[in-house]
């Protein structure tokens, strides 16, 4: 029984990790290639979720909503880039942090202004609404398996894109030395736009995918943004591979730790103290994990060589 | 002014004196404010708002000391606010209500925490430093939410403000205001002298070029760690005052958003001038307090319902305001104050 | 820059404070509610409920014109303290109505009652304010927090559930919730599971529930957490197999997002929109017409708070200067509460009936909670006896 439970929790961790990866991938590229700290990346996740909520209310179909939401999220990302972010590339990190925080404030309030403060709901698409029985009495929703599948497909596509295409090569080159890439005659401005738009769309896609299982509400991107930063820092900034592995680790540490920390502590403490300490430690786990990783590897697990 | 400037070949000295005017005016304004408060008819409110400004001024200045002079972006400084606050709250709940016990304990706790986390964090650089300080901040935050005997997530109310040598002076809002002003001034004077000292020059040198500092025989790590500990203690002091001002402590003192707000205060005010951080704190808190009202007032030509709507959504104005400050005012508010001089 | 803002602030403070005193001065009521952030919807219900009451009362309370000042506590207790000082000293309010959250209530309690301003809670009812730290200036038109949980504990006990799984966020209110549940439930608790605050994904807890097969689960998951839990509970196929008992998890503030996923899930409350009294019918109808949403209990409490103030002021002929007389008038105020039976106990908290409610769909397609059965009659909270009348 415990083995099956562990398996299910691992699946959950995998699913959470993949969502984190979708967000972190864009963040790490934007950061690595453009040396730009974009706090507003989490907002793009929120916008993706809101767009899918709005479009699915309009079209009545999740599939159509997703198809409409993706280009809209992309367009929205590019609009933000042109309006605000473009003017911040040559500024220092703190200016970027302050300005993108302004974008967060505006958009968190903005979605509330447009869609109201109450959380919105997106129905799970009919096709994927059932659940499969994994073990006796243990059901697992098909939709979550679909998220896992989609996440893995995107990760594979990203791998091919970054490692086996010209654009990917430029992106990798940009991550290690942007000035050199520019000196070689590459239109760096356009490269930045492509990277940025792509990152925004990935975050929007993550938001759209979780909309049917999470509540769509203002500020939903804030906490996930922090987690995404944790992921890219553990993975090493600019490294897609690092982001992928770190996202899965964080997903597993958080999910598995949450349900098994008290059990593990019970081996050394009495049950009451174990559950007490377990509860106190569970939310800290990912931060303890990050601090430990940075203690031994101050530039993350897969630092990009500069 | 211009004539004098023209007679001097180098504008540098006049620039220096001009900038000194700002901290003098700032402290004069704080000193004069209680008088105005008396006339406002809502003195308790005005005082409590300005006291809050000064307290966050101390915290922001503490951050500026390492951020502006050492380029160490701590994203976990709110933890020190919490440590100071909880030192007051926890000691008070066990009967130690005197600030003469509470403040030293708070400073010691902050120093110890800063020493341990600083020693680990300073192994990393740049964004990694930002994130590892965040991690430590989050650990303290979650620890506080699990302190059930001290109110857990709801926090705890203090029975009264701290005593000073057994006397309840601080109960009076005016006295408390002066006490905070004294702390602010003390912290400012201390920071100024640190910045001007050899220690401060090494710190700045490390910011500019750590390798060179090492080459000429300094160990940057030690200086940075010392600065981090001093900064943590100052923020801890601010935490003690904040707990007394609100007569309440809770984990909400140390959310990561609060740490972020401290950074914004410093950047908004202008990095690396100390009083800029105080001005940034003032601007941030006063805007947060009055922006809804200002919006309500300036939109007098709209219908009452629209005006209420506008006031409620003040963050939609606040956000773009921050962006505009960054885009068009280099160097924060201090940059704005400096600008006319450059023409 | 700093100086200008400060003078601006002071000027604003002064003009407001020295506004000309009129013959019959306007009564001032401050609404302290959470109106930004993810929990803003709760504050909106309360604000709208209060405004609706003001409309029904012709803009007057106890015959006096009223100015309502709405402030947003941002769910930051220390920010709330400063805003409250502004309400009391600058705006000179006679009543503070609010807040939604217990931590804001705990933080703002002292400055408000110390200034001898009446504080009427429209939701938050932390145990110490009902018990040891009760105060003659603090009243609630809501409940003591534990009471809704006690409803479910009683139901679980009465229905003979042998094994119950408990689930709450890891913070004080979550622990209080489970303690409240256990006050009347004596069966086996297979697990007390605490999730980190603002957990949005409950898959790991749901897996545990599925493997443990309890007779019922009890949970307290306010706001967005509740929306997620309900949708995921349904998706995991548990909703039809294991009864879902909850408090503050399935109500009109979350149902618009939960929709059909919540159908048939249970909650505990002192009221429901379908409660059959003429006042309530009109209230729900008007609220839906005005705000295109079914009111939640927060709206009802705020509406009742206005009625309570109105009734008390009528008894003192609109006077607020004699605080003792006004307090006595509030304590004994007689009005037709939307929930039917209502009177205030010695600790300022209501003595009222509690119901088991269930999520259902209205004929217009909107969701609401509906009464299943009455669980407690004229029920007093467990802390009232700790309230010493002297303080």
Principal-axis shape of chain C: globular
Point out poorly predicted stretches of chain B: 1-16
Distance between the termini of chain B: 13 Å
Low-confidence stretches of chain C: 1-23
CATH superfamily of the largest domain in chain C: Response regulator
Strand order of the largest sheet of chain B: 1-2
CATH class categorisation of chain B: Mainly Alpha
How would you sum up the global shape of chain B?
Answer: globular
Architecture blueprint of SSEs:
The complex is a heterotrimer of chains A (about 300), B (about 350) and C (about 400).
Chain A: H1 2-34, H2 41-59, H3 62-83, H4 93-115, E1 131-135, E2 138-141, H5 142-164, H6 166-176, H7 178-183, H8 188-210, H9 220-235, H10 240-265, H11 271-281, H12 285-296
Antiparallel strand pairs in A: 1-2
Chain B: H1 2-7, H2 12-40, H3 43-70, H4 78-93, H5 99-121, H6 126-145, E1 156-157, H7 173-196, H8 198-208, H9 210-215, H10 220-246, E2 248-249, H11 256-269, H12 275-298, H13 304-312, H14 315-328, H15 332-342
Antiparallel strand pairs in B: 1-2
Chain C: H1 2-17, E1 27-33, H2 40-56, E2 60-61, E3 64-72, H3 77-90, E4 95-97, H4 102-114, E5 118-121, H5 127-130, E6 138-140, H6 146-158, E7 163-169, H7 172-182, E8 188-195, H8 203-212, E9 216-220, H9 224-235, E10 244-247, H10 255-258, E11 266-269, H11 278-291, H12 297-315, H13 323-332, E12 343-344, E13 350-361, E14 367-379
Parallel strand pairs in C: 1-3, 1-4, 4-5, 5-6, 7-8, 7-9, 9-10, 10-11
Antiparallel strand pairs in C: 2-3, 11-13, 12-13, 13-14
Helix pairs in contact in C: 2-12, 3-4, 6-7, 12-13
Describe the structure.
- The complex is a heterotrimer of chains A (306), B (343) and C (391).
- With 306 residues, chain A is an all-alpha fold.
- The longest helix of chain A has 33 residues, at 2-34.
- In chain A, 74% of the residues lie in helices and 3% in strands.
- In chain A, strand 1 (131-135) and strand 2 (138-141) form a beta hairpin.
- Chain A has one domain (17-296).
- Chain B has helices at residues 2-7, 12-40, 43-70, 78-93, 99-121, 126-145, 173-196, 198-208, 210-215, 220-246, 256-269, 275-298, 304-312, 315-328, 332-342, and strands at residues 156-157, 248-249.
- Chain B has one domain: ABC transporter involved in vitamin B12 uptake, BtuC (Orthogonal Bundle), CATH 1.10.3470.
- In chain B, 76% of the residues lie in helices and 1% in strands.
- Chain C is α/β, with parallel strands linked by helices and 391 residues long.
- Chain C folds into two domains: 25-143 and 277-352, Rossmann fold (3-Layer(aba) Sandwich); 146-269, Response regulator (Rossmann fold).
- Chain C is 40% helix and 21% strand.
- Chain C is built from 13 helices and 14 strands.
- In chain C, strands 7, 8, 9, 10, 11, 12, 13 and 14 form an eight-stranded mixed beta sheet that branches.
- In chain C, helix 2 (40-56) runs parallel beside helix 12 (297-315), helix 3 (77-90) packs parallel to helix 4 and helix 12 crosses helix 13.
- Chain C is globular.
- The model of chain C is unreliable at 1-23 (pLDDT under 50).
- Chains in contact: A-B, A-C, B-C.
- At the B-C interface, helix 2, helix 3, strand 1, helix 10 and helix 12 of B face helix 1, helix 3, helix 4 and helix 7 of C.
